[in-house]
């Protein structure tokens, strides 16, 4: 099979670029991880599903992926302007637990969600609180190079010292200086950001000694320090949600450029948001948590299917109808595949087409459409199965899983009636009932020891 070239949309270049790794057959991938002060919501999970598909796509292209993900368990302030409370301390207060307990609990809940969604575990998981010294060292280097200044509440990065600050987001720094009213406090420029915050006179649960005074690190410095520790000062891909473009990734880049003289990643990829009637989804709302979806009778994998129906660079509008449709489609898919014989061969030309969709910036909607096209094609049934299951290495839908569907009462009654009339020898009536069941969306499968019913494929 000839492999089509892998193209990825790089936010920095604002265009599709052929992917070339630094080391042959190896990829260093840094994905910004969760802030563990509450449960993840479906939006957050959409971003991790995107990262998972990216990782699987790289793997199927023959790369060994060193996937590093941080856990933000300190330092993410409520406001992007470096004011307000630390989200962890706030979460702890709200739940009447210690910040450490909160972090541990929600980190576990996050990994439970990833498992339910069949998301591969990162190769390295690193917590901000376990890398305080690395962050202090990083800040000290920035200080030596003259990129920092101190105020009464912390140590700040001076964005004025970098000529191309904000290039990832195409930030208009001059416009920002003149126009937007940002909470400045003692900051010299609106875009300056905290590297280290002092505890001050407010009691804190998470705080450390530093050369500048007792306090805690800023949010951006944790990613710069840990990415460099585990992937080196230049690595292949950095990913996160689209909200990271103007602040978090912009500031990560500024720190690395200031310290090392270059941008740390060769490709910057961003997953667009899941939206709820065009509104922002917040962690404080509980309705879009994975456990809430499960409680409403949805399989976690139905949500995975739903996210595959839209491109990662499009907003996805969440609706319950959409999720129901995804669940039905997934069940239909599994049912179809379950009835196909094994021992087939992966079809070369369909695989090439599939890889073309994947390698054109992860076009999952088209890849998914191709799955259905194959199932309705003239391919040999066993080859259909082999090909679709090969595709599932990227889709990650567990298509081979045998579907156990609940048959509604009115259908069970019809099946019983059909068995009775068949036993009485009335085959014409039995066939008519079979057709009726078929029209209602189900399929009777007769076997030696009785009839079983599945959703019609
Ligand atoms: P947080 O736990 O708040 O740090 O966010 C974890 C990840 O979820 C980040 O990569 C965010 O960019 C991403 N994210 C936040 N809200 C959404 C959303 N509505 N849709 C998709 N991704 C999101
Ligand atoms: Zn980050």
UniProtKB/TrEMBL annotation:
Per the database record, which ranges form the tRNA synthetases class I catalytic domain? 19-326
A GO BP entry is: cysteinyl-tRNA aminoacylation
Which of this chain's residues are annotated to bind Zn(2+)? 32, 223, 248, 252
- Cofactors that this protein relies on: Zn(2+)
Subcellular location(s): the record lists: Cytoplasm
GO molecular-function terms, A-Z:
ATP binding; cysteine-tRNA ligase activity; zinc ion binding
UniProt-listed Enzyme Commission number(s):
6.1.1.16
**PANTHER family for this protein:** CYSTEINE--TRNA LIGASE, CYTOPLASMIC, CYSTEINYL-TRNA SYNTHETASE
**Designated name of the protein:** Cysteine--tRNA ligase
Q: Which gene encodes it?
A: cysS
